[in-house]
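Q: What would this chain look like folded?
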Amino acid sequence: MDYVEKFYEDVHGCYPFSTDNNKIKSQKIIDYLIDAQVSEETIINFVENAPKVDYLNPDILPEELWNNSLLKKNTFYYHSILHIISPPPTWDPINNKSITDNFFLEMQIMFTKKDRMFYFYHQIQIDEVFIDEKKDLAALDYLLKKYKKFSQFEPIDFILSCIDYAHSKNDNIQNILDLTKYEIDVFNNFYNQVKNAEVQNANQIVWR
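A: My prediction, written as structure tokens:
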């Protein structure tokens, strides 16, 4: 389905502009939603109920897209698993130069409590005999609440960084709450990363 055509037909009656510029801009938002694995039904609902704007844009994305997600609209996250990023440049051997599409750095929409838990299992390589999903979800919820006190960054970013730090140490932990023994080191490293990003203005969502 051509979601952009549907938007202009449903909301405007037809495409009312003399150039394709607004159509191209609208397509970028649709591409973002597809890359974020938003369902077809949800995308159709979005374009059918969009306001009468010249083109689809990030500001009109409904908050409901983030329902049941640990992520929030218009919020920058540092962890790479929460990113949607433009593909790397390709090399053109004939003209001896790299071909680069426009750079973008967008945020995922859906990242659930179970996604977070399975990331822990994968990174730490937890043996199946130690897995207790109900207990582990409760432990991760405890950490999420605990780290809300940090105003410098989002708690989900901090938890994912703790998981990566434990993975880098090859520490044979089996309990999610064992991540707390790394929190001081992770805080210092992550705080510096955030401050450097702020200075370099590298903590901004870059739309395609």
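Residues 3-67+83-106 form one domain.
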